[in-house]
Amino acid sequence: MGFQDTPEEWQVTATVTPFTGNKTSVRTDDVVMPDGSVHSRDYQVHPGSVAVLALDADGRVLVLRQYRHPVRHKLWEIPAGLLDIPGENPLHAAQRELYEEAHVKAEDWRVLTDVYTTPGGCDEAVRVFLARDLSEAEGERFAVAEEEADMEQARVPLEELVRGVLAGDLHNNCLVVGVLSLTAVLAGDGVDSLRPAEAPWPARPFEA
Predict the structure, then answer these.
(1) In what order do the strands lie in the sheet with 104-116?
(2) How far apart are CA 21 and CA 208, in angstroms?
(3) Which residue, 127, 136, 135, is CA-closest to 194?
């Protein structure tokens, strides 16, 4: 393909980390511009995430409603979570999140899409999986806490979610990207055209 994003790294003359949190940090780099000038760029350093668009046999998507304090909203989302372990296999992380947040497992997994959520201010990379052939997970439910203790769960037809996105009623990045990507896939070359679940991910390299 000739039309694609390409890796590139401009020279950094200095870097500091003025804030370090539990999962993320803030970094300031002094970056050399094409004209030779140097300017500071602040951004959040993020471990990366996975998200799961879980589609059941009736064409419904499993969604969760969760409070998100930075935007002061309860958002409908698809199951998602951080890559807590450096080099962690993203498929394993996605399977874990689907189990922990929804107590669901899936037999068929594909890579739906890979995105940088906010590349102007954060290096977060997200891999969105398509999961099908759903069933209830075995064993006890994962013990949730904090915001997750207030989560609601629903299964919503894909078409209804698309309408909500286009109407401006649904705003979660992974949900928006996921449902629009799946709609394009179903209208195009079909699910079998998607990349396998273990496809390479240069943004967050992992061991199979």
Answers:
(1) 80-82, 49-54, 125-136, 104-116, 195-196
(2) 29
(3) 127
Cα 94 to Cα 89: distance, rounded to the nearest angstrom: 9
Task: Determine the Cα–Cα distance for residues 126 and 131; give it in Å rounded to an integer.
Answer: 16
How much is the pTM?
0.93
3-state secondary structure of 180: helix
**Helix 158-166 and helix 173-187: axis angle, to 10°?**
120
Contact 104, 62 (CB under 8 A): yes
Produce one character per residue of 2-34: b if its CB has 16 or more CB atoms within 10 Å, e if not: eeeeeeeeeeeeeeeeeeeeeebebbebebeee
pLDDT in tens, 20-60: 998 999 999 999 999 999 999 999 999 999 999 999 999 99
Which among 85, 65, 89 has a CA at the least distance from the CA of 150? 65
Q: What percent of the chain has pLDDT over 90?
A: 87
The catalytic residue positions are: 148
Q: Decide if 100 contacts 126 (C-beta within 8 A).
A: no
Task: Count H helices and E strands in the chain, helices first.
Answer: 3, 11
Q: Using alpha carbons, list the distances in angstroms from residue 80 to 7, 34, 59, 173, 186.
A: 26, 37, 20, 11, 22
Mean pLDDT of the 4-15 span: 96
Q: Stretch 100-119: mean pLDDT, rounded?
A: 96
**For residue 53, what are the β-bridge partners?**
130
β-pair type (49-54, 80-82): antiparallel
